[in-house]
Amino acid sequence: METAFLSVAVMMQCTPLANRWQPFQWKPIEITADPVLAAAGSRCLRSGDDGALWLFGGFDISLYTDESEGYYLNISSPAPCWFVMWRMEVRDGQDIAVPRQVTLSYNEAARLMDGGEQVDTLPASPAVIERLSAYVAEHYRPEPKKKRRKPSFEGGAAVEEMARAEGGAHGG
């Protein structure tokens, strides 16, 4: 089941580096739920020798009951956060980091990283954590722990045969 949660925008910052192998670094610096910014498309807010700042709107965050464990893992961590998956793209002849997905699920972020995607984190606001906690309280049910059967060490014909084989191999 899907629940509409929030519409957000991501601000990405490009910072120049004094490094000949990597001349700049991109990273998300803010997630905002401002309705005007969340409805905006992508646009450059600032560009110059000291770097660039881009806004990417239009991320509608939905919560899914089958991701409840991932939300629980996020809010139970010491620093609950947003996960932003982004990729480098060429726009108007420039390399720009473009966010492709925003999630609050720890498990979904882990799957993205396992698939080789670039995922960065940003702290979640107390209001977002509170709403996510309420969702988790309503929908998350941990799987019951299963009893494991202890292995039998009482012997039997197969164990005696294995012991004879090991004894013969070790000179016993």
Brief overview:
Pfam families: DUF3305. This protein has one domain (about 1-140). Helix content is about 30%, strand content about 40%.
Write the layout of secondary structure elements.
Layout (H helix, E strand, L loop, with lengths): L1 E15 L7 E9 L2 H5 L2 E7 L2 E14 L3 H8 L5 E11 L2 E10 L2 H9 L3 E6 L2 H14 L17 H13 L3
Antiparallel strand pairs: 1-2, 1-4, 3-4, 5-6, 5-7
- Portion of residues in helices? 25-40%
- Quaternary state reads single chain
Low-confidence stretches: none
Number of strands: 7
Q: How many helical elements?
A: 5
Order of helices and strands: EEHEEHEEHEHH
Compute the CA-based radius of gyration.
25 Å
Mean pLDDT: 88
Largest sheet: 4 strands, antiparallel
Number of domains: 1
Strand content: 35-45%
Report, as a whole number of angstroms, the end-to-end distance. Answer: 64 Å
Q: How are the strands of the biggest sheet laid out side by side?
A: 2-1-4-3
Description:
- By secondary structure, the chain is α+β, with helices and mostly antiparallel strands.
- It has one domain (about 1-140).
- Helices cover about 30% and strands about 40% of the residues.
- The chain contains 5 helices and 7 strands; from the N terminus they run ββαββαββαβαα.
- The strands form 2 sheets. A 4-stranded antiparallel beta sheet has the order 2-1-4-3. It has a 3-stranded antiparallel beta sheet with strand order 6-5-7, covered by helices on one side.
- The radius of gyration is 25 Å and the shape is flat.
- The model has no long low-confidence stretch (mean pLDDT about 90).
